[in-house]
Amino acid sequence: QVQLVESGGGLVQAGGSLRLSCAASGDISRIVTMGWYRQSPGKQRELVAALTSTGSNTNYADSVNGRFTISRDNSKNTVYLQMNSLKPEDSAVYYCHAHYSRAFYSNDYWGQGTQVTVSS
User: 106: which strand partners?
Assistant: First the structure.
């Protein structure tokens, strides 16, 4: 089992910055990847950014590449999403995600979500 707790959302003006945090607990040694997804009303949940457990590989949505940075602090079991140059279209509920895998079993875990609102 893995638990994910997000923090750091809020209201910001266009062009501003926010940093989201996701603290993981539980059987974290078997987490393969962690990342951030977002969902706005009427749209499907989409991948924003993800990284491997070692942090050696990252993946970004084209819409945020160059503006957002995903990173992790293994000493704190925390993944961060630094969001710069925010745009109104970045407004959404952001969810932390972890993909867990061990022999004969895998699962996806989600945080409760944190609202990001970017005003124009």
Answer: 101
pLDDT, mean of residues 4-33: 96
Decide if 97 contacts 79 (C-beta within 8 A).
no
Look up tokens 């209201």; give the residue.
Answer: 11
Rounded to the nearest 10°, the torsion over CA 65, 68, 69, 70 is: -100
- In the prediction, which pLDDT does 53 show? 86
SS3 9: coil
Region 81-105: mean pLDDT is 97
DSSP letters, 63-116, are TTBTTEEEEEETTTTEEEEEE-S--GGG-EEEEEEEEEEETTEEEEEE---EEE
